[in-house]
Amino acid sequence: MIGNVSVVCAWCSSVVTPGGEYVSHGICPECALNFLKKLPREYLETIAEPDGTVTLLSGHKLDIAAAP
Ligand SMILES: [Zn+2]
Questions:
Q1: Distance from the CA of 8 to the center of ligand 1, in angstroms?
Q2: Which 3-state string (H, E, C) describes 2-31?
Q3: How far is the first Cα of the chain from the last one, in angstroms, to the nearest whole number?
Q4: For each of the chain's 68 residues, which pLDDT tens digit applies?
Q5: β-bridge pairing 15-17 and 5-9
Q6: 20 C-alpha to center of ligand 1: Å?
């Protein structure tokens, strides 16, 4: 089942994980970073790992230092 699923970004429609005929929606790293940039830095720091990254549901790790 999992091998037949393509994950497509719900925001920009880019393919996050190429798969098969079925489509699931997720978020690509670019859109996730844009989303994180809108959150207060103080909040990001509360959800960040000790190494300063935030792990998304998609499994991508983003460095919050990249946010303003
Ligand atoms: Zn996207």
A1: 8
A2: HHHEEEEECCCCCEEECCCCEEEEECCHHH
A3: 39
A4: 556 999 999 999 999 989 999 999 988 888 988 888 898 989 999 999 999 998 876 677 888 887 66
A5: antiparallel
A6: 19
